[in-house]
Design goal:
Helix content: 10-25%
Mean pLDDT: 91
CATH topology: Cathepsin D, subunit A, domain 1
Low-confidence stretches: none
Structural class: mainly beta
Strand order of the largest sheet: 1-2-9-3-8-7
CATH class: Mainly Beta
Order of helices and strands: EEEHEEEEEEHEE
Largest sheet: 6 strands, mixed, barrel
Distance between the termini: 15 Å
CATH architecture: Beta Barrel
């Protein structure tokens, strides 16, 4: 895993930049509720969501919101979505397999580089 800045675009063109933890082993993409509360007025495109998620450590978490919109990394854009739940301070944004897939990311294990 590594950290890199991503950009989320709201429906009115509002830009929100977030430090994201990239983890291709994460089966969901998510934003922590504390970050969401600070930026939700700029995001738009979100709806309530109460989906249970089992964490790798066996903990059950419940989502509160699902967001759908434009995700951008270094100028490469795609439509994507993520869930919002409390990370317990582990990360601000978890950039998991669903968003890596829509951005057609590839990981070279030989060079340990992700290309989008």
């Amino acid at each position: 895993p590594f950290v890199h800045t991503i950009t989320l675009k709201g429906p009115g063109g509002e830009i929100t930049r977030v430090q994201a933890l990239f983890d291709h082993g994460a089966m969901t993409s998510a934003m922590c509720t504390t970050v969401f509360e600070a930026v939700k007025h700029r995001l738009g495109g979100w709806k309530p969501c109460n989906r249970p998620l089992w964490m790798a450590n066996g903990t059950l978490m419940h989502t509160v919101v699902e967001w759908t919109g434009t995700v951008s990394i270094e100028g490469v854009e795609a439509q994507g979505s993520f869930l919002v739940f409390n990370s317990g301070g582990g990360w601000a944004f978890l950039f998991g397999k669903p968003l890596l897939t829509v951005l057609r990311a590839t990981h070279s294990y030989h060079t340990d580089q992700v290309t989008i």
